[in-house]
Each structure stands twice: as structure tokens, then as C-alpha cells.
Specification:
The structure holds two protein chains of two kinds.
Chain A: H1 15-19, E1 35-41, E2 47-53, H2 55-58, E3 63-68, H3 69-74, E4 106-107, E5 113-119, H4 122-129, E6 133-138, E7 164-171, H5 173-181, E8 185-193, E9 205-211, E10 216-221, H6 226-236, E11 245-248, H7 264-275, E12 280-283, H8 286-292, E13 299-307, E14 313-325, E15 352-361, H9 375-393, H10 397-404, E16 411-412, E17 418-419, H11 424-434, H12 440-449, E18 453-462, H13 470-475, E19 484-490, E20 496-500, H14 509-521, E21 528-531, H15 549-576, E22 583-586, E23 589-592, E24 598-600, H16 601-610, E25 624-629, E26 638-648, E27 653-664, H17 671-691, E28 721-726, H18 743-760, H19 771-779
Parallel strand pairs in A: 1-12, 10-11, 14-15, 20-21, 27-28
Antiparallel strand pairs in A: 1-5, 2-4, 2-6, 3-5, 7-15, 8-13, 9-10, 9-12, 13-14, 16-17, 18-26, 19-20, 19-25, 22-23, 23-24, 26-27
Chain B: E1 5-7, H1 12-21, E2 26-28, H2 34-39, E3 47-50, E4 60-63, E5 66-70, H3 75-80, H4 82-87, H5 89-96, H6 101-106, H7 109-115, H8 122-129, E6 132-135, E7 139-141, H9 142-145, E8 160-166, E9 170-177, E10 184-193, E11 196-202, E12 210-211, H10 213-220, H11 246-263
Parallel strand pairs in B: 1-3, 2-3
Antiparallel strand pairs in B: 4-5, 5-8, 6-7, 6-8, 9-10, 10-11, 11-12
Classes of the chains: A alpha+beta, B alpha+beta.
Bound molecules: flavin-adenine dinucleotide (FAD).
Amino acid sequence: MSTSGIGQSVRRVEDIRFITGNGNYTDDISRPGQTYAFFVRSPHAHATIKSINTKTAAAAPGVVGILTGKELAADKIGGLICGWMIHSKDGSPMKAGAHPALAVDKVRYVGDHVAVVIAETLNQARDAAELVEVEYDVHAATVDTATAAKPGQPQVHAEAPNNTVYNWHIGEKDATDAAFAKAAHVTKIDLINNRLVPNAMEPRAAIGDYDRGTGTYTLFTTSQNPHVARLVLSAFIGIAPENKLRVIAPDVGGGFGSKIFIYAEETVCIWASKKVRRPVKWVCDRTEAFLCDAHGRDHVTHAEAAIDASGKITGVRVKTTANLGAYLSTFASSVPTYLYAPLLSGQYNIPNIYCEVDGVYTNTAPVDAYRGAGRPEATFVIERLVEVAARELGRDPAEFRMHNFITTFPHQTPVIMAYDTGDYGASMKMALDMADYKGFAARKAASAKAGKLRGVGFSAYIEACGIAPSKAVGSLGAGVGLWESAEVRVNPVGTVEVLTGSHSHGQGHETTFAQLVSHRLGIPIEQVTIVHGDTDKVQMGMGTYGSRSGAVGMSAIQKALEKVIKKATTVAAAVMEVPEDTIDFNDGIFEARGTNKKMAFGEVALQAYVAHKFDSEKIEPGLKEGAFYDPKNFTFPSGVHIAEVEIDPETGITKVEKWTAVDDFGTLINPMIVEGQVHGGIAQGIGQAMLEGTVYDKSGQLVTASFMDYCMPRAHDLPSFNVGMTTTPCTTNPLGIKGCGEAGAIAAPAALINAITNALGHENIAMPATPQAVWQAAKSSPHKIAAE
Amino acid sequence: MYAFDYRRPATLNEADLALKAAPGAKLLAGGQTLIPTLKQRLANPGVVIDLSAIPDLKAITRKGDTLHIGAMATHAEVAGSKDVAAAIPGLATLASHIGDPQVRHKGTIGGSLANNDPAADYPAAALALGATMHTNKRTLSAQDFFQGLFATALDDNEILTEISFPIPKRFAYAKFPNPASLYAMVGVAVAETAGGPRVAVTGAGTDGVFRVPALETALTGGFKADALKSVTIPTTGINGDIHGSPEYRAHLIGVMARRAVAAA
Ligand SMILES: Cc1cc2nc3c(=O)[nH]c(=O)nc-3n(C[C@H](O)[C@H](O)[C@H](O)COP(=O)(O)OP(=O)(O)OC[C@H]3O[C@@H](n4cnc5c(N)ncnc54)[C@H](O)[C@@H]3O)c2cc1C
């Protein structure tokens, strides 16, 4: 077997480039004659724009142009869109306000785009921006998620009375209520899923470049899905038809979802490049990123579980208010609905589930998908609920989970999802072993002796990845199909280029995708190049998010590879003058069974291109195949994470002592990269649970607008991760891949809060469990510890 | 950043002249505070005068029972200095926990003290150790030097050149870092000096670094952590923010003081 094929921990081929500063990010690109954009942003969370005076600013040195919402409207440039239609319980479509790329009459959050100043240098653009005079009539702001829909709150959009975008629900209410009526025990919890700022290492950036000669626009941008950006910018926003609009997303330095969306800034840059007849570049600074990148999470939830006398969960009832921010971002509406509630069954056999979600507008940054997108929120609900239920019933939390695990597959949940496969008990058992759960009591006693509180917490998560059958998501309101495309181009000497609609923003596709090709074609990965991120090269694609690039993107590549092998077999048969069905293809060799005839892949490729030895009337020359792959189902990665913490009650400092993660991702292409994804995900989940809190004050000012106040996880906050794997290959895609990109971020918060509450001996703590919060909570801990 | 002129004088005298020639000019040491301030356009000094070419501002020497540290000594140099480790090991430890490696290799003791950030670490040490600040014009006691949030006794045209620390019997600094910024949310420096015990607190005062007479008195009977157990720190004058309420910070002063005394 090859050393670079599926299952090998091949070193990432892109890392040398990234580590040595040879990456090519959007900000590394400069276009001849380039100008610089700086946005005038609203300092108020909620205000009416009375006037914008650009006269003085326009006369400032170096200014090339100043544009406002008026010019944008005059050019009939459409507003930003939300691409997923959600219907309320009563059947009415969601109530969305307009989302112009530059504000027209009102600003709705701090950082909202008021005007753009374009100048010869960035400093000149900034200088001039300070001279733009905007007169505001400032209004009270709606900030708080829980109360946004209460009557009398300041209204964010006239189109959405009581700031309510939708009152959505899923599941059978009556059947679920009936289960609760019969329950032997009911567990109730109230949770806040804290708002997070994504903070990709590379901030967003865009260069718009209009070519007057050809009438073509080129947009360089930090996008996880350049084709979706092109589709939206052309079909909905109306910049130019698709054939006149090229979107290039070069190296992208992290995104976590925040670079899926089509934002105001790139829209303005591409539009403005024609207006000012020069390329226009914008690079986000960190403060702008805090204010304006789409945030994540922000739910307020009440959840209940009905449990029968044998300890089986018979029903789950959830009521969530989801803060969508000031405008609906590209996929905002779907995240707290279809990406959330269908995961509320977790790994458990729960016959009745009913969930209501109210989506609300507030005067805060838009909220959209962020690593896990809905699934971390669902996992936090179900895994806190199950843990608390076990505690209330006096049952061991691991045993209680196993008692309720789904054990037969396929399994249809009451909320859409049909799990194809899994072995939840296997992951739990392995995790218990690896975490030395048996030894926990002794460790807890030792901690208590030293004046510390020790706790252990579980999270048995499930997620739905590889979104998903296009027909299914279409019926749920998605505006796009969610297949993936691939094209495999074999060169005459047998080297290969793979064009994929997925787009790496750190995941290592150039390595893992090449591993698949190497595996299937039996050629070294050095002979494979992955091409992505350019709409002029790759015909169409849906991009990278929701852990779909393995399950969907690689399935498309696999499908195209099979077509290549089929064609190559035809060529080889003709050249070797044997029947096609006598040819076997293994490890890069086409061999005619029962003869000594064989040809290497490269030789066949050459023959396909020279076309000397077959009848080109019957066999087309060349070797290039494309495929579109539409998944049959979601994939369902699952696993068990166990966190162990020690709290110093005197200071409130929580030390994460141990972290065990056992995941079932199906087939692993590159175990090292998978483990890296797990590490990064857990780090983000620990960040959410203990460190990262986004705070807006009552007037809508973002208090945590820098790293001085917004705490990102650092190495010293994290333990060494103990990672294990179980494997049940996905049954619905050709490679058996489930996806691994978000698991850590989905699993970790519940595990950690379960551990902290276990240590504290009560449930009364919210995320982020900062030292101050833990210190407060430890004061009411019933646990006895030795005095220091 | 607003545009500015950059000067790099070769002597203190030249620096002094450059300062006088450009009212509003800013001295540049490690730039760890000044550069971010400039980048955010929170300052527009017109002229920036870089002190890094002036010789002798970096020296760390021990003279008798005093430790002298040049204003331009970086945190990493203080942390790694054998003289500091021998004379006041707790000071080396303090320096080794400032910010991150990048900050420690650029940031300077002089810049930190001149900036007097209410959450910076050095001010607590300087005050607890009874340090003396030497400028190109005069000398000042730490007590007189610190004058509230980001305020010192330095004139506009005055350059801090050296800090001298009388070597104490014992000294330690216990820091509770703000999880986000890693600055001190509460930092307590304790010293057993010739003049008696001294306790100084950073990170927690609404008016910057301050001494805590109640803790100092409690230590007079013996430099023991237990001696502090009975002291409650009132919340008056203690600041609160999203990271810590005045109650939490006041509580942490007690905890960190005991830990510092135990470590000293
Ligand atoms: C990420 C980060 C984390 C940090 N964490 C900590 C921390 O944990 N604890 C901590 O204490 N600090 C911390 N700091 C601050 C750091 O210690 C800086 O070194 C310090 O604030 C300023 O020192 P500097 O040499 O960089 O001074 P500069 O930034 O160059 O100057 C600061 C100010 O002092 C003035 N100045 C400088 N030198 C002199 C002089 N010789 N005479 C008169 N005026 C002068 C300057 O004009 C300026 O106004 C952190 C900084 C950063 C960026």
C-alpha cells in the first residue's frame, strides 16, 4: 500500500508555504493602480441618519471617491441576502428587514456601514473618513436576547414587529406534552449559549477590480465558498452576470464559518472598483472584525426532559430564543432552526421531541454559523439536560447515558434525522477507560485534601455533517443545492490536477484530497495538485463548512476518479488489445488478467493524449472527467468527551486537568490532520465554556471589542488532549467519511460545564465560567474541602 | 497611525533637546504600549523619539545593597539577569510573567513605569520595594512618582533613566492575571525591608497602584501568611469591570497577599 494514501498521517504539504511566509492571502495581493477603502462606521447601535456631509472629506489629500448608500441604491445594487427561508408555526414566511451594503436611512449596530472612503493610501482614506460628517438621531437600542421580543422594546426593523423574525417549531407538540404528563420524573434547566466572536487569524479582506476592456469584474476575497459568493453577488445583489464576475479566494487563514457569508465590504469594493475606475482594496482590522464579522451562538433556552420510572427519556421539550443580530446574515435563519433542533435527540432514543425557536433581531452584530453552527447549541442543551437528569435521579452519568443510547441502526429520530450508523457504547467504554473514570473518586478526595474541588463531566455528542441531500434541504427552505463538484484532469505524463468546489481555509485539502487521488490512482501525492478557490478554474462548487469537504467534496472527487479509471481502462484495453473486462487496476497498474500485459497509469495517460493506438472515432482522446456528487443523507459523527477539572475555590481558577475525546468520524483519510481538527475544536469549545464572553452594554456598545477584554483560548489554558477513535464507516457515501471539523467545538462546552458543575455540586453557573463566576459559584458549593 | 517624524538621538542630551524642540513629542522605549496607541490613532504626537540608541540605559548592576536597572532594560533582560536573581529573585520572576515572550523582549522597565498602567506589574514592585526613580533631571521616590491612572510625576520633557531598588530581606509578587489581557487583575507585591514590611497592590485600585497599610501592620508582628488571614480588604477604592467586581478584586488582594508572603 502506498505511504501517502488513505489512512496515512502524511505531513501537510501546504504548511511549508504557510510557515515560511510564502502563503498567498488576499492581503498579499496588490493590483496595479490599487486604491484603499476605509469604511465610515456607525458609532451608535441604533440611530437614524439625518445627514451625511462628505464635502470636506472629498477635498482631503488623496481621496479618489466617497460613496454612500444613496449611490448604491441609484446603481440598483441589491441588499445582502439571507439564503434560507424559514416559515413560522402559523405558516407565514420569516419577517426580514432590508440589509443594504451601505446604510440608507438607519444604522442598526455599532460598526454598521455608513460610507466608504477610497483614497490613494489607507492612511489618506482614514484621514478623510474622520472628516465625513454624519448627523445621527440616536435611539434606544435592543440588545438583550431574552427580552428582545417583549412588547415595547426598540424596534430594529419595521418589517419585524416585536423584533420577531420567526416563531418556528419542529416535532409533535401534543405527543411530547403527553409524554411529560406521564413522566415519572421531569428535569428542567435554563441555559444561555453565549455569543462568540469568531476571530479567524486572517482578518477578512477584499479587492474589487473592474476591467473596462472586457467588462469583467474580479473579486479577490477571503471566502470559504467563492462560487456561492459569485452566485449571490451576481444573481441577488446584481453586480454583474456570472460570466462577467470572477471570484478568487486565494489562501484563506481560518474562518470557522465567518467567511462563508457575503458581507457589505466585498460588495462595496467590487461595485466601487467600476465607479472609481481603479481596483479597490479593503483589509479588515481587528477592531472591525470584532464589530462586524458575523458572531456565533447567542441562545437563551429553557429545556425539559421527561423520564419514565425505568430511567428512559421519553420526551424532550425545548424553547429557545435565538439572537440573529441586526440583520439576517447569509445563512443566519437556518442555524438556530434546521441546523439546531434536529440534533436534539443526541445519541439517545427519545420518542418525543418538540422544540420552539423564536428568532429575534437586536442592535448587535449579525449572528450566523460559527464552528458547529447549531449543533454545539443543541449538544449543550441535550448533554446538560441528560447530565442534570442523571444527577437528580442519583444515577451515574455514564451509565444513565448508556441506558438511553440508540443501539440499533438505522435510527429515525422524531426530528428529521435518520442516523445511518454508530456505536455509541463503544466510544463511551473506550473514553471511560482512557479517562480512568474508576480512579476519579480517589483523585477527587486528593483534591479535596488540598483544598480543591474536582469534577468530571461528560458530553456524548452527535452532529450532522456533510450537508446534505439537495432535495431535502430545498424542501426545508435552503436557497441552494448542497452537492459538490470535482474535476480530475490527468496530464499526458500522468500527473493530475484536481479541481474542487470545496475550499480549504486551513483544513489541509491540498494534502488530504491528494491522498485520496494517490490512493485510488496509485501515484505519489507529489504528482497531484489540488486547485480550488477560483471561479474561473473550478466550474462550480458549494465550498467548505459544516464538515462537508470530506464527506461531500471528496465523494465528488472519488466519483470523478472512478470515471477517469473507467476511461483509462478503455484506453488501456485498446492499446493492449485485450477486452476491457479483463483489466484490473491496482496500485497504479492496468493489468490484463491471464496475460503478461500491463501498463502503468502514466503510460495510459500518455496513450490517451497521443491517441496513436486507438480508433479516435470510438474512443475520445484525452483523460479528464468531472462529477457532481449529491449526498444521500447527512453523516453523523459522534463521540464521547470527558473533561476533568480542578477548581481553586479561593480564586475561582478552574484548571482543566484531563481531556479525553473518543470520536467516531468514520473513515480517516489523515489521522494526524483529524487529530489536529479535534484539538482545535476542543480549544474553541473550552474557550466558549470558560473564556470567551461577548458583552454588549445597554446602549449596544461592544465592551469586549479587543483581545484585551475578549479572552481567546491560549496554550496555557488547555490540557494535553487524550484522543481516541472508534470507527463505524458512514454507510451513505462511497468513502465512509463522516467529518471531523467541528466535533471538538460541539462536544467540549457541555463536557466542561458538566465537570465544573460536578465539582461545584450545583448547577448554578453560566458560560463562560470565568474565574469570577466560578469563585461566586464556589461560595455556595455544598462540597466540603479542607481549609488551606 | 497619524504620520510622525522619527528621531533616534545618540545621547541623553540630544534626546532632551529633541524633546524640547517638539512639544507633544513622545519617547519610544519598547513600543509595546506606544505603538498600539499610535496605530489606533489614540495619540498624534507629531514626533517620536526613540531611546534605543542611547548607550548605558540598559545596564543592570548591583552596588552594595542597591540594585540598579537601566530604564531601557527589557523585561526579558531583567528576568534573565543573574544580578537580579541574586539580589531580588522575586523581581526576576515578576518580569518573567509580564505579557508574552514578544512583549518581554521589547517592553522595558522604564516604559512600564513611565506609562504607569493601573494593571501593570512593575509599579507594585517599585512601590513595595521603595524604589528610587532617576531621571535626567532629578530623583524621585516611588511613592511620589506614581500619581494615579497612567499618571506619574514625570514632566513632559523628563526622561526616566534608571530605577534603583534597595535590596530587601525578602520580596515576592503574586499575580492574578486577567485571563484575556494577562495584565494583573490583582497583583500584590510584598517586601520585608529595612524600614519594615511593605505591601503594594496593582490592578485593583481605582487610582492605580497603592499600598495597603492594614496588611503591612499585620505583617509587623512576623512576616507570615497566617498573619494576614484576619485582614479583610474593604472595597472602597477598588475598581470593578466585566472581569472582576470590586468584591472579587478585594478578596483576591487578600489571597494574593498571603500567597506572596508564603512565596517570599
Ligand atoms: C500583549 C501585551 C501584554 C502585556 N502584558 C503586560 C503584563 O502582563 N504586565 C505588565 O506590566 N505589562 C504588560 N504589557 C505592557 C508592557 O509591559 C510594556 O512594556 C509597557 O507597557 C511599556 O513599556 P515599553 O518599553 O513598551 O514602552 P513604550 O510603549 O515605548 O512607552 C510607553 C510610554 O512610556 C513612555 N516612556 C517610555 N520610556 C520612557 C522613559 N525612559 N522615560 C520617560 N517616558 C518613557 C513613552 O513615551 C510612552 O508614553 C503588555 C503589553 C502587551 C502589548
